[in-house]
Amino acid sequence: MNTPKVLQIVQRCEALFEDLHFNAVQQWKAAQPGRKAIGYMPVYVPRELIHAAGMLPVGILGGGDALEVIQGDAYYQSYICRIPRSTIELGLTGRLDCLDGMLFPSICDVIRNLSGMWQMLFKDKYVRYLDVPQNYQDSVGGTFYVQEMQVLREDLGRLAGREISDADLNRSIAVYNDNRAAVRELYAYRAAKPWQAPTSEVYLLLRAGMVLPVEEHTALVREYLAAAELLQRPKRDNARVVINGSFCEQPPLALIKSIEMAGCYVVDDDLLLVTRWLLDEVPADGDPLRELSKAFLHHSAATAAKYDLTREEKGVYLLKQVKTRGAEGVIFAAPSFCDPALLERPMLQDVLTRHGVPHTAFKYAENTGQMAPIREQAGTFADSIKLWNAA
Ligand code: SF4
């Protein structure tokens, strides 16, 4: 019997996900001499600028559970998260040689240190720590961010050997608007029919977007949506949950599957947040850097990785996710030693408790191997939600 189309797409995405030698990136570069690829760490960089320079943005999310970290451990103390160590390991073992540069967005001190480490270790590559605004007024934080992006634009222009024009940038904004729209459709579809689009598949589909050209990824997401509808799958009486705290170091795929197998439908999450950081369409006919800045300041996802004391009360965004997706509970799943996620967690838990939203919490590392405790905890959580709702 032929493999259904939707599963063929998932298999392709899984192969891309498992390839820690980034063959897809190497092939893209080899197809045309002179092409360049720029890596970026989660959770957000304005990928439009890289695209407008004719380069391939490549999302680097550590080594997952398939990479043995040997050299990387020597660079960091043991009591921090794993993503910087496995990223160093990827670099030192030559797996990132296909990249012509790396961008380290301002997420936390660990990433800031990693950026410095990268500058020392890979002197022949372009490396930039990309600061983002901590003030949300257009005239203050906005002006700062436009200047940051302008520096990046000039740097990338020098690497590309040509200036990046406003028209180039506006074209790229339109291309990414389309990708964001496709991802929004995917998230809406999963929330409406989570049994038809399991999160383990949605996640792989988004991971493919870390290495594929954005145009190809947008087409793949829409192909998946069409194919997912054709394969009818059993609908279960699962608990609908939102996952929070997984915006940087990613959980192993087995962990996502374990949560689902334990009786949860994930109807929203903050995995691979770069794909949904900007919430609305960005105008593609104005001053491009200004528009990207305004989108960051006024229409972007709330996360612990973003310093924003003024815009919204803590937990409002998460509560909105719960409400609009019809979720019955929240699973806080954060990487061990992740300062931003773990510092914010008690505040979010407090908000949920006050609003009567059930929640549970655990920690993971990208190479966590023992899934039984997580399955048990998620299963108990799902059962208790069903019991409370029935009572
Ligand atoms: S997992 Fe958390 S602590 Fe580690 S680099 Fe990412 S945001 Fe920073």
Q: Could you explain how this protein is built, in words?
A:
The protein is of the alpha/beta class. It has a domain at 5-168: Rossmann fold. The protein has helices at 5-18, 23-30, 47-52, 83-92, 109-121, 138-160, 166-192, 199-208, 214-230, 253-261, 288-298, 316-324, 339-354, 372-390; strands at 37-40, 56-59, 101-105, 126-130, 239-244, 264-268, 329-335, 359-364. The protein has a four-stranded parallel sheet, sandwiched between helices. Strands 6-5-7-8 form a four-stranded parallel sheet. The longest helix is centred in the middle third of the chain and has 27 residues, at 166-192. The radius of gyration is 20 Å and the shape is globular. The protein starts with a helix and ends with a helix. The mean pLDDT is 95. Iron/sulfur cluster (SF4) binds next to helix 5 and helix 13. Iron/sulfur cluster binds next to helix 5 and helix 13.
Key phrases:
single chain; 391 residues; alpha/beta; Rossmann fold; four-stranded parallel β-sheet; 14 helices; 8 strands; globular; binds iron/sulfur cluster
What gross morphology would you assign? globular
* Mean pLDDT rating: 95
Total E-strand runs? 8
Question: How much beta, percentage-wise?
Answer: 5-15%
Number of helices: 14
The helix/strand series, from N terminus to C terminus, equals HHEHEHEHEHHHHEHEHHEHEH
- Biggest β-sheet, characterized? 4 strands, parallel
Q: CATH topology of the domain at 5-168, what is it called? A: Rossmann fold
CATH hierarchy: architecture of the domain at 5-168: 3-Layer(aba) Sandwich
Poorly predicted regions: none
What is the distance, rounded to the nearest whole angstrom, between the alpha carbons of the first and last residues?
Answer: 45 Å
**CATH top-level class of the domain at 5-168:** Alpha Beta
> By helix and strand content, what is the structural category?
alpha/beta
Major sheet: arrangement of strands:
2-1-3-4
Helicity level: 40-55%
Distinct small molecules: iron/sulfur cluster
Radius of gyration: 20 Å
